[in-house]
């Protein structure tokens, strides 16, 4: 689902100044994990001729589109999003991000991406994960919004089979 979202946000036109790129960032505890979503995204882009025509440069950890959007894979660090304008930030496996006293705690990653998202009207933050522990940004969002409707936040909790009926 987040790969589909990445394609949709990446294929749009954004107002930007000359030389500026707009980014779709796929963050995860490590680059290999973020690479899973990136490969799904790239596969979707290449499977639709109109989207494939937008690709102007493809690298191991990013793809640049003709509309000035770059989809990139990043390790979840507080320095990574600085100085960029993000249309979409996907934080993968958020329950497994370090918390509290680590060098790059999950809360600081959120503080770093919010100004970058604010630079693009209509931008979106998508935090996804399988569950792990009752701590961190994912659990805080679940505790605050689960079964409590909010116009800006959607929390989905379901079993693996509910989300993927083909799973054995």
* Low-pLDDT regions: none
Walk across the major sheet and give the strand order.
Answer: 2-3-4-1-5-6
Count all strands and give the number. Answer: 6
* Apparent shape: globular
- Whole-number mean pLDDT: 91
Q: Strand count, sense and closure of the main sheet?
A: 6 strands, mixed
Helix content: 25-40%
Overall description:
- The chain is an alpha/beta fold and 168 residues long.
- Helices cover 34% and strands 20% of the residues.
- It is built from six helices and six strands, in the order H-E-H-H-E-E-E-E-H-E-H-H.
- It has helices at residues 2-10, 31-47, 49-52, 106-118, 136-145, 160-163, and strands at 22-28, 55-58, 62-65, 69-75, 85-91, 124-127.
- Strand 5 (85-91), helix 4 and strand 6 (124-127) form a beta-alpha-beta unit.
- Helix 1 packs across helix 2.
- The protein is globular, with a radius of gyration of 16 Å.
Quick overview:
By secondary structure, this protein is of the alpha/beta class. The protein is 34% helix and 20% strand.
């Amino acid at each position: 689902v987040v790969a589909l979202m990445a394609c949709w946000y990446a294929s749009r036109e954004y107002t930007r100044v000359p030389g500026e790129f707009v980014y779709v960032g796929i963050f995860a505890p490590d680059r290999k994990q973020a690479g899973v979503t990136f490969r799904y995204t790239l596969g979707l882009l290449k499977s639709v001729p109109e989207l494939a025509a937008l690709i102007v440069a493809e690298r191991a950890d990013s793809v640049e589109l003709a509309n000035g959007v770059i989809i990139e894979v990043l390790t979840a660090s507080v320095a990574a999003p600085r100085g960029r304008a993000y249309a979409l930030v996907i934080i993968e496996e958020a329950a497994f991000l370090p918390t509290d006293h680590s060098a790059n705690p999950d809360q600081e990653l959120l503080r770093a991406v919010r100004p970058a998202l604010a630079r693009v009207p209509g931008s979106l933050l998508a935090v996804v994960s399988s569950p792990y522990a009752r701590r961190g940004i994912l659990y805080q969002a679940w505790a605050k919004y689960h079964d409590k409707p909010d116009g800006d936040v959607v929390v989905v909790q379901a079993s693996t089979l509910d989300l993927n009926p083909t799973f054995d």
